[in-house]
Write a sequence for this structure.
């Protein structure tokens, strides 16, 4: 169970990172200037942390808001880049809509066809109060207590993660991530398939099942942690997010789910926006080190834009060694493209291996979903002159943490579990609009923003409003065949 | 049987809008965003009208009352969409890759109307469709067996009407031609009012006039958008 907590954390973190880094496109110079101002305050601390290997890319810096290191300032590209940034705005939004929609679809389809996920029997260890009392007051109290417990676990995990990251315990973090994705890909997928087969009454022998599971899991591990076709990786990340969402829906008590959604989005807000917010520190540190995030945590959209060779100079930032980890196939030389900030965000996802540490014997080990970030990369046709360590891929564009996927899907899935499609649809549209607004804000503020608060707030408002007020009206209209 | 009914009804209601979406909206990100924003606008209008209907307890059983306010609010939000789109036109053009997006002013009207209509159609029908899958169906014991198919037909009518209404409505405000705006509102009241008869199972009396209004509205929208008989023939023949 402890894992669960970690997952949540991860999720949160991701969320935080979900930055539509549209901003990345910005000219380095502008960013650099901006950063320079901020830097004065921040740089000292950051430097102390350690070596900044690469120069952080400007884009990332912008995204993270507190960009530590100076991004190299490649002068030339500015105007163009500015334009491009705007230009790709709409496309970025859609690039986010599609995976979010797919993830929700998987969850909603599962919830409405497989009974298992909407039946409440066992609960997570983190939610000791099971809301069995008939009194509403007690239920509310239980839900709040549960969600606060979950939140504190998350906060703890986040701090742990930051400490690990600061101490450069990459091995531990990687191990943790691999362990978590292993659990998700094998154990939870197995549970999922078993329930699906049962729901559809399909007989299958264990040999076939294990053969299939083995292949599925191994391919998933390879694609997520090493390399593979981008589409496949995205598909796996979406599936993992959907699985996590299903786990939350299944194992959290009724009202706790809603309380958790509310509390998490507030936490997201705090963690990303306050000066000492954990996620923010993470982002800044990653940027400072000019590191991409662990590949497992990154959801990258495959879009590669040819930014035009015209801007080669701009690319100047050296990606530095930064890219190392991502086995990403795409090599975009452009340093700018790597948005450090974004990467960092993805990073949060660190899975907390804490389960083991936690001591809580977990019945279920829920792994955190990896935060996927949705990344859009810019591919430069010309390699920037800077010596890039190879082909790193930089990620550029809008990034959405896997955690956002999870919680969006939890909301929509939970809404659909009551069987009213209007509510589901209302929540879906509300979340998409919230995402749009977040991206709009991102374009305006040009810093990392939490993706959960606006969307989840809209989603919650529409869920409760639709359920209480709109549904009776809509049902009456449909029954009488009155069309408005 | 119920499954066949489900598919035929869903395709009847949403087939045409789906094709319109696929051919005219889906390949342009900005249009998708506008469509979702319009859907959200409709959702808000429906929320507000539901609150009014819900708050006035004594009149809750009279759907005509709720319908009246729902129409008012829909038109108000349609106007809101109009204002919003006209204000953000420049911005939208910037974020779009397709720089021709504003070349026809009614393009956005069409897209937002489609979003408006699709959402209203979805809200009207989606739960009915979910029930139509079975295991039971209507018309065996009580009720009429035409319930699903008439609902789907009316839904299609409303989706298309909303699309055309938005085109006419936007152009009416653009040109200060308030007759067009008046037509939109009057025909909206007319069609919705007619649908009150559905509960008496007078389907011919509701669906036929509704589709006549739809045809008239489509014609007006077509002319408004600058179409003519010749251009219509051309657009059909040039492909072949």
């Amino acid at each position: 169970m402890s894992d669960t907590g970690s997952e949540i954390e991860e999720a949160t973190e991701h969320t935080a990172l979900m930055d539509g880094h549209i901003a990345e496109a910005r000219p380095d110079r502008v960013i650099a200037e901006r950063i320079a101002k901020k830097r004065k305050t921040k740089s000292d601390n950051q430097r102390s942390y350690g070596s900044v290997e690469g120069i952080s890319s400007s884009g990332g810096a912008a995204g993270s808001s507190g960009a530590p290191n100076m991004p190299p300032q490649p002068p030339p590209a500015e105007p163009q880049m500015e334009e491009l940034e705007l230009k790709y705005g709409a496309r970025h939004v859609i690039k986010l809509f599609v995976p979010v929609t797919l993830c929700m679809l998987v969850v909603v389809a599962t919830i409405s066809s497989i009974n298992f996920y909407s039946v409440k029997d066992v609960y997570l260890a983190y939610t000791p109060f099971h809301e069995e009392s008939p009194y509403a007051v007690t239920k509310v109290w239980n839900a709040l207590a549960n969600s606060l417990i979950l939140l504190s676990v998350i906060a703890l995990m986040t701090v742990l993660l930051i400490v690990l990251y600061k101490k450069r315990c990459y091995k531990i973090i990687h191990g943790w991530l691999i362990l978590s994705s292993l659990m998700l890909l094998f154990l939870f997928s197995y549970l999922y398939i078993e329930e699906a087969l049962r729901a559809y009454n399909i007989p299958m022998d264990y040999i076939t099942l294990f053969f299939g599971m083995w292949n599925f899991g191994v391919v998933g591990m390879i694609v997520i942690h090493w390399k593979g076709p981008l589409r496949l990786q995205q598909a796996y990340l979406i599936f993992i997010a959907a699985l996590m969402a299903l786990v939350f829906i299944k194992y959290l008590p009724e009202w706790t789910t809603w309380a958790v959604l509310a509390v998490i989005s507030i936490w997201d807000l705090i963690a990303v926006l306050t000066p000492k917010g954990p996620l923010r520190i993470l982002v800044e540190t990653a940027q400072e080190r000019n590191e991409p995030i662990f590949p497992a945590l990154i959801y990258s959209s495959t879009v590669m834009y040819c930014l035009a060779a015209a801007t080669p100079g701009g690319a100047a930032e050296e990606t530095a060694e930064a890219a190392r980890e991502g086995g990403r196939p795409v090599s975009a030389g452009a340093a700018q493209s790597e948005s450090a900030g974004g990467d960092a965000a993805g990073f949060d996802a660190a899975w907390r291996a804490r389960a083991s540490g936690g001591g809580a014997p977990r019945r279920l080990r829920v792994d955190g979903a990896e935060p996927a970030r949705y990344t859009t990369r810019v591919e430069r046709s010309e390699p920037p002159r800077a010596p890039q360590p190879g082909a790193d891929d930089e990620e550029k564009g809008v990034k959405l943490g896997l955690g956002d996927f999870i919680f969006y899907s939890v909301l929509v899935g939970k809404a659909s579990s009551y069987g009213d499609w209007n509510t589901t649809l209302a929540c879906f549209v509300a979340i998409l609009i919230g995402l749009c607004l977040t991206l709009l804000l991102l374009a305006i503020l040009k810093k990392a923003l939490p993706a959960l608060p606006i969307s989840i707030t809209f989603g919650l408002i529409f869920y409760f409003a639709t359920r209480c007020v709109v549904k009776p009206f809509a049902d009456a209209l449909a029954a009488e065949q009155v069309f408005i | 049987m119920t499954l066949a009914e489900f598919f035929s009804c869903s395709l009847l209601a949403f087939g045409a809008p789906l094709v319109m979406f696929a051919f005219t909206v889906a390949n342009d990100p900005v249009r998708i965003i506008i469509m979702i924003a319009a859907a959200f606008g409709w959702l808000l209008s429906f929320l507000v009208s539901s609150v009014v209907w819900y708050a006035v307890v004594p009149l809750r059983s009279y759907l005509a009352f709720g319908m009246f306010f729902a129409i008012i609010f829909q038109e108000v939000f349609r106007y809101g969409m109009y204002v919003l789109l006209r204000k953000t036109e420049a911005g939208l053009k910037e974020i779009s890759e397709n720089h021709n997006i504003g070349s026809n002013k009614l393009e956005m009207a069409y897209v937002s109307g489609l979003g408006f209509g699709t959402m209203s159609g979805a809200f009207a029908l989606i739960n009915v469709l979910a029930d139509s899958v079975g295991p039971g169906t209507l018309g065996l014991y009580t009720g009429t067996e035409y319930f699903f198919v008439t609902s789907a037909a009316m839904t299609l009518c409303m989706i298309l009407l909303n699309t055309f209404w938005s085109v006419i409505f936007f152009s009416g405000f653009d040109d200060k031609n308030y007759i067009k705006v008046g037509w939109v509102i009057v025909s909206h009241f007319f069609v919705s009012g007619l649908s009150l008869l559905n509960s008496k199972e007078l389907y011919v009396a509701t669906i036929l006039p509704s589709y006549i209004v739809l045809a008239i509205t489509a014609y007006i929208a077509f002319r408004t958008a600058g179409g003519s008989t010749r251009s219509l023939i051309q657009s059909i023949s040039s492909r072949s």
Notes: Residues 1-87, 302-395 of chain A have pLDDT under 50 and may be disordered. Chain A touches chain B at residues 86-91, 93-94, 97, 419-422, 425-426, 429-430, 432-433, 436, 462, 465-466, 469-470, 472-478, 480-484 (CB under 8 Å).
